[in-house]
User: What shape does this take?
Amino acid sequence: MEKPRIARYKPYYYELEADRTYLWCSCGRSENQPFCDGSHKGSEFLPVKYRAKQPGEEVLFCGCKHTNDQPFCDGAHNNLQDTYAGEEDNTSAVLASYVIRDTTSPVTKLNNSCYVSNPASHKFDTSGSLAWCVLISGQMGAQYQSQYYLKQSKGEHEIVSFGDSEIAMLVTGGEGEIVISGKLFPLSKHAGVYVTAGEAFCLVPSSEKPLEVYVTICPESNGLKVLDLMPNNFDATVPKRVISVDENNAQNMGDRFFQILVGKDVGSNVLTEFIGDIPKSKAAMHRHLYEETLVILEGEGVMWTENKKTNVVSGDIIFLPRKQVHSLECTSEQGMRLAGVIYPGDNPAINY
Ligand code: FES
Assistant: This one.
């Protein structure tokens, strides 16, 4: 089978016009990328037609021509090179000024509404032996997601509801179980947890060490509510709720690896939660069409935006608005482990 030419590694961002048909070049020979100019003649390739679903539709047309989701990028370009860095150098960010983390402020702001934060710099609310703080919200610049940090100590276990929003959690500390609308699941370190819209949950630590979780709520919720009674509305059509880290389910992304914890396979069409490992490296500056929240689980590094950067360590979160230019550098010899939630979107490998 003839192989397509790589026109360029990264995809092409377009805002489409209504009622217009686009002819995407699949062969890679066109001089008018990403569109067909007829150069495929004599090859086994044909252009792929696409018509905008609505005016202004934002798309990423595949540039490497190796996508399995023609005509769009599916992240295949990440695996055509040895590293995630891409063909560009990082000169645009070399002059980025270093922003010192101010532990008296809840967030360290980078460019636009991107910021780095840590639960340790937030004020906590409490109810019984549950303590929580808000790390990401609409007020803090997010459009689609909110994120809370919850710490449940032994004692009175509070029943928590986020109303009609879907929830993806990440277990970062302690041991124990979670009860979701009456059904009990054991938890493991760095497991992802999925709670469907309308359900409530209760964290139950099994030792003196509190259970610690990062809770991402999509879309923006009306806030955390403590209920008197556990509702009996467990959604049995979605049986799998706790997804443990499993190297057999990891996917390559250049020299990086990631595993989807919560997503379409579990039953959510709203959010995607992943966990990943990054070697000591700095990726080229890039963007995503989705809003993203990251939690650093192990290792440390530097978060770069257009002309600012700051250090990140285990326990930090990073908020990235849609289309924010950024790069997360891992500076640890042993690599970095991180988890993230993206919305809207289901493929954390897509970047431009
Ligand atoms: S020029 Fe590439 S498909 Fe037509």
Q: What stands out?
A: The first strand starts at residue 12 and ends at 15. The chain has no helices and 29 strands. Residues 293 and 299 are 17 Å apart (CA to CA). The chain has a mean pLDDT of 91.
